[in-house]
Design brief:
The complex is a heterodimer.
Chain A lengths: L2 E10 L4 H11 L3 E10 L2 E10 L3 H15 L1 E7 L12 E8 L4 H11 L3 E11 L4 E10 L4 H15 L2 E6 L3 E2 L1
Antiparallel strand pairs in A: 1-3, 1-4, 2-3, 5-7, 5-8, 6-7
Chain B lengths: L25 H15 L6 E3 L9 E5 L11 E22 L2 E19 L5 E7 H14 L22
Antiparallel strand pairs in B: 1-2, 2-3, 3-4, 4-5
Classes of the chains: A alpha+beta, B alpha+beta.
Chain lengths: ~170, ~160
């Protein structure tokens, strides 16, 4: 049974990072599972599931030269490799408004109270540097009705002057 | 009555293009019955295409009536279906019996007009939109040897494009 790790890499973005990292891991007998890469504020960021024979210290030693060469910070955690256990979201929220501290905490606080499990969250700051706007998309699963969710988020819309669009997600299975 | 076996990706037969049904004879009628039984054995599934069970003839079944929040025409057997008009583009989430454990976002036409023969050979025409139109487009793709994973628009594009499902 080979070990599963979550490998996190962060650094200055440039073309070719994914290719170099995956080549080193492939040559070491590694197998990649689910992964999520995003460019955040000009930084390269990726979290990827890695299944590989060596123990954690050896994987770190394998990656050190590469981290140095590409200027990447990396971090490795041992994890349970639960592939094929996807949870499907049933609600989507789109949130936007003038950028202000606490939007994420306020919105997700309300959602947590409803046991809403966030499965995907993306956010961005747009607008002009003088008048930034905050935009966030959340997909998740909640075992509650559309109307109860809507009722719970309504005070936020009124109090914080942010716009929240709530929509059910209905996956077509054919 | 028989529940038919579903072909699962990466089975190469799923990329085979299906042929036109020449006549709705007893053999085809019996097959349609089995295909209906197969579809109904998967709760939550709203469509199936003949090639998914290894018959490469242009037959699909779509039934969105279990989701009354979406406009639909009920239980439809469409033989030799052709989309003769389409309008608008919309991204939505799809899954498939032939691609277990994966859901992806796919861009489809928002409105379509589909012409076909029904299970007794009568000409039928439907104007569809949204979820039902998506299901029909997904199933017709199977007849052309295409899977929804051939048309993915990626997971992280919700910020860029409108999604409705």
């Amino acid at each position: 049974m080979r070990n599963w790790y979550m490998l996190t890499l962060v650094g200055k973005d440039r073309p070719g990072i994914v290719a170099e990292v995956s080549q080193v891991l492939f040559e070491a007998g590694g197998n990649l599972g689910e992964a999520s890469m995003a460019r955040l504020g000009g930084n390269f960021t990726v979290m990827l599931m890695l299944q590989i024979e060596p123990e954690k210290d050896d994987v770190e030693n394998l990656l050190k030269p590469l981290g140095k060469k590409l200027g990447l910070f990396f971090h490795i955690d041992e994890i349970a490799g639960n592939l094929h256990h996807h949870v499907e979201p049933n609600f989507r929220l789109s949130v936007h408004g003038a950028d202000q501290a606490g939007i994420v905490a306020m919105v997700t606080g309300v959602l947590a109270g409803l046991k809403f499990n966030i499965l995907n969250l993306e956010s961005d700051v747009g607008g002009s540097p003088k008048k930034p706007i905050y935009i966030m998309h959340i997909e998740g699963f909640a075992d509650c009705s559309h109307s109860s969710l809507e009722k719970s988020i309504k005070p936020l819309i009124n109090d914080k002057k942010i716009i929240i669009h709530l929509a059910p997600i209905d996956t077509m299975m054919g | 009555m028989a529940k038919l076996k579903i072909l699962v990706y990466p089975d190469e037969r799923l990329s085979q293009v299906s042929q036109l049904v020449k006549a709705i004879d007893n053999k085809i009628t019996s097959f349609i019955f089995d295909l209906e039984q197969t579809l109904s054995s998967f709760p939550g599934c709203v469509g199936i295409a003949a090639p998914q069970v290894g018959l490469f003839e242009r037959i699909i079944i779509v039934d969105v009536s279990s989701r009354p929040q979406h406009k639909n025409h009920g239980h439809l057997v469409l033989v030799n279906p052709v989309i003769t008009f389409s309008e608008g583009n919309i991204i939505g989430r799809e899954g498939c019996l032939s691609v277990p454990e994966y859901i992806g976002k796919v861009q489809r036409s928002q409105k379509i007009k589909v012409q076909a023969k029904n299970e007794v050979g009568d000409d039928v025409t439907y104007h569809m939109e949204g979820y039902e139109a998506r299901a029909v487009q997904h199933e017709i793709d199977h007849l052309d040897g295409k899977l929804f994973i051939d048309s993915l628009v990626g997971k992280r594009n919700a910020l860029k494009k409108r999604t409705d499902f």
